[in-house]
Amino acid sequence: MTPAIPLVKATFVMPFRVVMENNGIDADQYFKKFHLPLNKLNDGETLVPEKPFWQLINQVAIAEMIPDFGMQVAQASPWHENASLRPLLHDKQTLKAALETFCVAASQQSNVSDFAITEDSNLCWFENHGYILVSNDIQMELYRVTNMIELVQLATGKNWKPLKVQLMMDRNRVVEMNHILKGCELVFSQQRTAIAFPTGLLDATITTTPVSAQPEATDINETYTFHKVQDKNELIGALREVIKLYITEEDLSIDTIAAITGLSTRSLQRLMKKYAVSYNDLLNEARQHYATEKLRNPATKITDVACQLGYNDVAHFTRAFKRWSGMTPTQYRNQKVN
Residue 141: which domain range? Predict the structure, then answer.
């Protein structure tokens, strides 16, 4: 079952923008079109809706005529150099240790990632049983399989190719002729994305260190926890993250949030009714969170906070804030700053 609201860390989105700009493409235009908040993506740990991201990269590949766009991004910014994953992989000595660590860590970066290592006779499969969020997807799968190959190449060198490759996409001549996959045994229309290599390769020593000189200490267990099937807490938590991300947008109706998350308005309403959650309550909760964070800074004007949250006048904002917290914005600021 696909999670109701697929999310991914912003650190995986930004490299796509960089490659777009390197190709002379107006990235801002595409990000706005698919409701990806440009001003919120600088923090790589920010959670963003994943489906619009998938839609964007497939649209870029078609409209800008870049059939291997996903591969280009993977080559320019591989997973093992990503700020969230690099510190977790830096001290791994063998390919097996690196891949096992990655499989655990990946599920903390996106709630539609499901990587594993399985063995079949004398072959080892590095596989992903993720979900297809966009029909006829090609670019995300190219991005995914290229990154998977590059992870194995940490122990084999850049010229290595897998013995077999399984892809969820339908047969595609562009993919077959691509230099990274050319010569591999490709099998299309599968239930997973997977690459195969001899089992003995798992013990190979990592020769390319995926790390900067001074990696940050990171604990997998301290990262945002995703679950493959969201129960009430995970679903509402994901919805809170999305609303919080877009809280300063002009139109933040339930229709807008539904479009951003990839759900129909009716589906979102049905889910919220099932868990007895009010959209207005979540909206006000996000407004309160935003306002209280901003008001902690004495240099921030109360009128600016009111305007950013879409209030026509400070009096209206003051009444709302008092309903949320039991005090006016000025009283709250005096209490927190003094």
Answer: 7-209
Whole-structure pTM value: 0.84
Residue 48 DSSP SS3? strand
Residue 129 CA from chain centroid, whole number: 16
Name the phi and psi angles at 57, rounded to 5.
Answer: -70, -30
Low-confidence ranges of the chain (pLDDT < 50): 211-230
**205 and 236 housed in the same domain:** no
The pLDDT, as a whole number, for residue 290 is 94
The CATH number given to whatever domain includes residue 143 is: 3.90.1520.10
Q: Are residues 60 and 203 in the same domain?
A: yes
Look up residue 70 and give its amino acid.
G
Q: How many C-beta neighbours within 10 Å does residue 276 have? A: 7
Q: Are strands 185-187 and 164-166 parallel, antiparallel or unpaired?
A: parallel
- The total number of residues shown for the chain amounts to 338
Going by the DSSP 8-state scheme, the letter that residue 110 receives in this structure is B
146 and 20 in one domain? yes
Taking only the tens place, the pLDDT of each residue in 122-166 is: 899 999 987 788 888 899 999 999 999 999 999 999 999 999 999
Question: Which residue in 219, 207, 239 sits closest to 47, CA to CA?
Answer: 239
Structure tokens at 141: 């799968």
Max CA-CA distance within the chain? 72
- H-helix segments, the chain: 14-22, 27-33, 50-63, 69-76, 86-89, 95-106, 139-156, 173-177, 232-245, 254-261, 265-274, 279-295, 302-308, 314-325, 329-337
Candidates 106, 110, 118, 95; CA nearest to 192 is: 118
Are 190 and 77 in the same domain?
Answer: yes
CA atoms within 13 A on the CB side of 183: 6
Is 81 in contact with 153 (CB distance < 8 Å)? no
* Pair 226, 111: CB distance under 8 Å: yes
The Cβ of residue 107 has, within 10 Å, a number of other Cβ atoms equal to 18
Residue 8 β-bridge partners: 48, 110
pLDDT digits (tens, 9 = 90+) for 258-303: 888 878 899 889 888 888 889 999 999 999 999 999 999 989 999 9
What is the distance between the alpha carbons of residues 193 and 91, in angstroms, rounded to a whole number? 27
